[in-house]
Amino acid sequence: MFLLDDHEIVRRGLHDVFSGADDIQVVGEAGTAAGALARIPVIRPDVAILDVRLPDGSGLEVCREIRTRLADVKCLVLTSYADDEARSGAIAAGASAYVLKAVRAEELLATVRAVAAGRSLIEPEATARGPERPRDAAPQESHGKDDGADGGDDRLASLTEQERRILELIGEGLTNRLIGERLHLAEKTVKNYVSSLLAKLGMQRRSQAAAYVARIQAGRR
User: Fold this and answer.
1) Which of 39, 104, 113, 185 matches a 20 to 30 Å C-alpha distance to 19?
2) What letter does residue 51 receive in the DSSP assignment?
């Protein structure tokens, strides 16, 4: 088990939680994204618990990098923020679980064990079904092709070039703030773009867009 959180008191609390479990051992910790990315590849823990907001970046970026380089290291996002933006980012980054810090110790232990065993506990309905269609929308004909798998989805064609770029970054797990930094836009401007592209795609939640991008990328492989 590896712990990433910029608050020492939180890391100490997690140490206390896991110290009573015979089958879980904390083998490393860090308070920054850079520290985690330097230590996790060396230690290669079974599970890494990652905070979202860090002084030098995001735990979601750490998750995406670790999952790309070390597929055997499972990631659990532990955060205080119950927002769709962070949750969809965790899905896109490859996290196995998304847990709020208000979780009970017993529940956290059970989640860690499940993640270590290879189970994915993060919004399985979003990744399995793909984006939901609004209830009052009529089904679209696929003409024998997987919807959006070859980039021919009419909904994609309705997006502006900037909206497409932002959609791709949502698929990478970036938050509005990080997208703004990447594209040199104000966070509020990014939020407006996200609202617009979700409406054009017939979606209500950011997590649906992240799952949609994942389906398109899977169809191109």
Assistant:
1) 39
2) -
The per-residue DSSP string of 37-96 comes to: HHHHHHH--SEEEE-SEETTEEHHHHHHHHHHH-TTSEEEEEES---HHHHHHHHHHT-S
Q: In the 8-state DSSP scheme, what is residue 30?
A: E
**Cα–Cα distance between 89 and 70 in angstroms, integer?**
19
**What was the pLDDT predicted at 207?**
81
**191 CB contacts (<8 Å, ≥6 apart)?**
176
pLDDT at 119 over 90: no
* β-pair type (47-50, 74-79): parallel
- Predicted structure pTM score: 0.61
Q: Look up residue 204 and give its two tokens.
A: 């209500």
pLDDT higher than threshold 90 for residue 2: yes
| Contact call for residues 184 and 191 (beta carbons, < 8 A) | no
For 60, the token pair is 């979601």
> CB of 196 within 8 A of CB of 166?
no
Residue 26 Cα to chain centre, angstroms: 23
Kindly state the tokens that stand for 16: 């206390």
Residue with tokens 């990447």: 182
Measured CA to CA, the distance from residue 5 to residue 23 in angstroms comes to 22
pLDDT in tens, 37-66: 999 999 999 999 999 989 998 899 999 999
Largest Cα–Cα distance of the chain, in whole Å?
Answer: 57
